[in-house]
Design brief:
Elements lengths: L2 H35 L5 H17 L14 H5 L5 E6 L4 E5 L4 H7 L1 E7 L2 E9 L1 H58 L14 H51 L9 H24 L8 E4 H18 L3 E6 L5 E4 L1 H17 L6 E8 L3 E8 L25 H4 L4 H11 L3 E7 L3 E9 L1
Helix pairs in contact: 1-5, 5-6, 6-7, 7-11, 8-9, 9-11
């Protein structure tokens, strides 16, 4: 059963039930009010008549035989206008009647009283006069009118409420039906499909959340496809080189000189590094990267890395400076992983800094983080490239060679390694002025 039908049936049952209860309450309340307002006191007359009939019953050996011959006091019969009375047995048989009023009127409009003898009810007496009849007619007429009006009002209210319930059920479930249709399309592979946001309530928030999820799925699908294409591209080039070289050696049919194998070894090294980088990146992204944390002095570590890349910097006459504004540079990290992060940043800074430039490494202290900036005076990065800089295989210059640009995994690995330590890495760059990578690691 659909939500719309459930909602409509629930509202319908509630509305009909409330209409019935409303009608019954009105009838009971009005009847009680009329009984209290239109009641005529005939207790004296009914008491006198009950005494007469009870005495007759007891003196005639608990029998009503001959009751038709009894004559009532003229005073009782003339006390009010149009007096009438009827005596019925316990089985409903008419035992006695007096007055000119039809027995059916007396029974229907009169005041009922029980006739008791020896503590038991032996008959029922109905007393009637003009005033009693008028009050009974008024009470019945008003009760009937009020009941009819209440029932008609309840019926109109129920139908109107059911129409509103149907309208509300359609209105409330319409956004959900649109969302279900969009979900079905997403399930069929239409990543990025967007659901219309037609309300600002919870349905609208659900639709917005779904749209964001759909966009993320589309981005993830694009990343997956790009990753497969990039991996195939990265592997195809060195494998093509290896195959070409080996085919050439085979065609020469001569002994291979050792120095001619060096290019093949370089390509194998490149393949091995690519596979290892992909393995490390997949572990980091899956949260399964093993970290061997231990207290590490970051100032000493960075100084060692600067000395390690110094020969490459000297070839381009690039100056590397390390400045530290705090004495608390020891944090608990995996030195091997962090070395890979900052070595990649330093190598990139030297690679894209022109001759005579400078690379600055600055260590600063925050309340709960240690901040390390790696800045260069290089060519900078265009703003449109910055959001994708940490994506796998992303290169700001598509035309550059792999010998210059690497595999495109270094920054992606650096980001995952820093995230695994609970830190962050950001980049700020200005074209023609340089780039700054800021790494924050928890203390």
């Amino acid at each position: 059963m659909s939500i719309r039908r459930k909602l409509f049936l629930s509202l319908a049952a509630f509305i009909i039930g409330m209409g019935i209860i409303f009608s019954l309450i009105i009838k009971v309340v009005v009847t009680d009010i009329l009984d209290a307002m239109l009641k005529v006191d005939r207790s004296q007359e009914t008491k006198e008549l009950s005494t007469i009939f009870a005495h007759y019953y007891e003196t005639h050996h608990h029998s009503w035989n001959g009751i038709q011959q009894i004559r009532l006091h003229t005073a009782i019969m003339k006390r009010h206008e149009q007096v009438g009375m009827v005596l019925l047995s316990r089985k409903g048989e008419q035992l006695y009647a007096a007055g000119e009023i039809p027995a059916s009127w007396v029974i229907g409009l009169g005041i009922p009283t029980k006739i008791q003898a020896d503590g038991k009810t032996v008959a029922f007496l109905y007393y009637y006069d003009r005033e009693v009849g008028n009050m009974a007619k008024a009470r019945r007429g008003i009760t009937s009118s009020v009941t009819t009006l209440s029932l008609l009002s309840a019926v109109v209210l129920v139908f109107l409420s059911l129409f509103i319930a149907l309208w509300l059920s359609k209105r409330f479930t319409a956004p959900l039906e649109l969302l279900i249709y969009t979900i079905d399309r997403l399930g069929k592979g239409e990543f990025g499909i967007q659901a219309p946001v037609i309300t600002k309530d919870e349905y609208g928030k659900v639709a917005q959340t779904f749209n964001e999820m759909s966009r993320q799925l589309q981005q993830e699908e694009e990343v997956r496809r790009r990753l497969v294409a990039d991996v195939a591209h990265e592997l195809r080039t060195p494998l093509t080189i290896l195959r070409g070289k080996l085919d050439w050696f085979q065609q020469q049919r001569r002994p291979i000189e050792p120095e001619k194998l060096l290019p093949l070894q370089d390509e194998l090294i490149r393949l091995t590094r690519l596979v290892e980088d992909l393995h490390q990146l997949s572990l980091a992204e899956a949260g399964k990267l093993t970290l061997e944390r231990k207290p590490t002095n970051m100032k000493s570590l960075l100084q060692q890395l600067i000395e390690r890349v110094a020969p490459h910097a000297e070839e381009k006459n690039i100056r590397i400076h390390l400045t530290c504004s705090t004495n608390h540079t020891t944090i608990c990290v995996d030195p091997h992983r962090i070395t890979q992060v900052f070595l990649n940043l330093l190598v990139n800074a030297i690679r894209y800094t022109p001759e005579g430039g400078a690379v600055n490494v600055m260590i600063d202290e925050e309340p709960v983080m240690l901040q390390i900036d790696v800045s260069d005076t290089g060519i900078g990065i265009a703003p449109e490239h910055l959001p994708f800089l940490f994506d796998r295989f992303y290169r700001t210059d598509e035309a550059r060679t792999r010998n210059r640009g690497g595999t495109g995994l270094g920054l992606a690995i650096a980001k995952e390694f820093v995230s695994a330590h609970g830190g962050t890495i950001d980049v700020h760059s200005t074209l023609g002025q340089g780039t700054t990578f800021r790494v924050k690691l928890p203390r």
